Amino acid sequence: MAGGGVPPFMADGLIFLAATVVAVPLAKRLGLGSVVGYLAAGVVIGPFGFGFLASGEEMLPIAELGVVLLLFVIGLELDPAKLWRMKRDIFGLGTAQVLITGLTLCSLIMLMGYPMRMALVAGFGLALSSTAFALQILQERGQLSAAYGQRAFSILLLQDIAIVPLLAMVTLLTPFADAQAGPSIWIESLTILGAIAAVVIAGRYLASPLFTILARSHAREVMLAAALLVALGSAGLMHVVGLSMALGAFLAGVLLAESSFRHVLEADIEPFRSLLMGLFFAAIGMSLDFGLLMDHIGLVVLGVFGVMTVKGAFLWALSRATGSPNSDALRVAVTLPQGGEFAFVLFTAAVGNRILTYDVANVLNSIVILSMLLTPIACLLLDAVAERLRARGVENPMVETFEEATPTVLVIGFGRFGMTVAQILTAEGLEVRAIDNAPDRIAYARRLGFKVYYGDATRPDVLAAAGAGKAALIALCVENDRVMGQAVDVVREGFPQALIFCRATDRAHALELAKKGVDFQIRETFESSLVFGKEALYSLGIPADRVAEIEADVRQRDQERLAIQMREGFEAGLDRIHGITPRRRASDVAADPS
């Protein structure tokens, strides 16, 4: 049968993949980050570039799922207690930023001769920053958990919440708005509260038991399907009642942040999130109309400069006024000066309600897109200034970076051995994170008060989500030798900064781990056997100093035998064992479990 050519959706997908494969590595090589690469790819392949794809608008509904999944993953990293501790930044700093920046921009737009209704929508729309854009930059730099990263996230979260009253403002500003809309507002409010309650109840009481049942099946694809169901289901419900889909996904993530499955959920969703986020930024790049841009180039350039300057100045001033050091305030200012994706939503609604004309909305969209493109460059310039000052031996607190000082330990395998290790570490006040792949064991440990999460020790994405990239030491306490070997290789390749401490099941396993170059290994029965033998000697009346001498001798002989076995093989070094006579054959001790 004759072929009918490549299906349109497949051709579009191939063009998108080819463009990103070229543009993203090039942008990262130039130090601009992957976001700029996706935007540039969209500009090139879009209708106003080389015209390979007709429109980015058709891609946006699917691409926006990337923002949804991003907020779900961010929510997984913020448990309700931590979110409550951030309330001052969210509702204080965030609200002040939106109100002050929005009113200032509104005033400037009115001074340019535009009517107040148009100025209000444009000013508050441009006051919003890009959650997707800023969080992507913070994640790529590994600074989302830094002090300034947390403050920036608080502002972004408030802005996501603010889109709801801003959309209501558009409705109220609409010419000939229905004055009898009062009762419907109450109905809508009750519907929204009901939807939020449904998400809270499902996330709090239904999701974790569901994941526990699915984890026992050890079917990774089913866990992935359940994770997507929770994230997208919550987002869809919020969208139905008129709230932001991203806000719904974030709420679901927060409710699962204390679940033992948070790390595996984050690792499973990450590939989908990354690809869809790339599609989202490419779709935005495709919508940049160069013809319109050139027709209004003066206004657009003035708008970009004005928005980034005003927002940056207020972000810096408000951050300083609420307690941030100068370095953190500057970094917040250069991370959030761009326009945001919710501005597109607001401007589209304003066009539909005859507040903005189509041309004005496109000019505003161009300002948002260009401000996104310039943000990574501003971050890069700040880093260059800091690096140049450090090279000259100047530690300038204005651009000093923040680093977390508390070392963390990741314990993998939380049976009896791992639990005892965790007790010793936490007794010193160290931060200990633990993962295991047995749901029943996790449930038992959590009943005792330990925070243990579900995860596979051989998956680098799960280890990264669990914090292996920041761990000073990784303690491998798993019972399976094969899994232990794979985990050592994964840790050595993906997280070389961490010390590797291992539990060995027997002597042969200890030798295998030593050959892999782990930093420390111990046979699980060796120390207990020594204590057992010492107590037997005490009970038989042997003096304490002689017992200590015997223990030291046995330890030394054991280390010497291990060194000989590393050089000559497992059956070598038998003469270092007390009680072995020359007449005994090597095969008699070949299965030595010590």
Automatic annotation (TrEMBL):
UniProt entry tagged with the keyword Membrane: yes
TM region positions: 6-27, 34-53, 59-78, 90-112, 118-138, 150-173, 185-207, 243-261, 273-293, 299-318, 330-351, 363-382
Membrane topology, from the record: Multi-pass membrane protein
Superkingdom as given in the UniProt entry: Bacteria
Annotated ranges, domain RCK N-terminal: 406-522
Matches recorded under SUPFAM superfamilies: NAD(P)-binding Rossmann-fold domains
UniProt keyword Heme, yes or no: no
Entry's localization field: Membrane
PROSITE patterns: RCK_N (PS51201)
Keywords: Antiport, Ion transport, Membrane, Potassium, Potassium transport, Transmembrane, Transmembrane helix, Transport
Protein family according to the UniProt entry: Belongs to the monovalent cation:proton antiporter 2 (CPA2) transporter (TC 2.A.37) family.
Protein name per its UniProtKB record: Monovalent cation:proton antiporter-2 (CPA2) family protein
UniProt organism field: Roseibium aestuarii
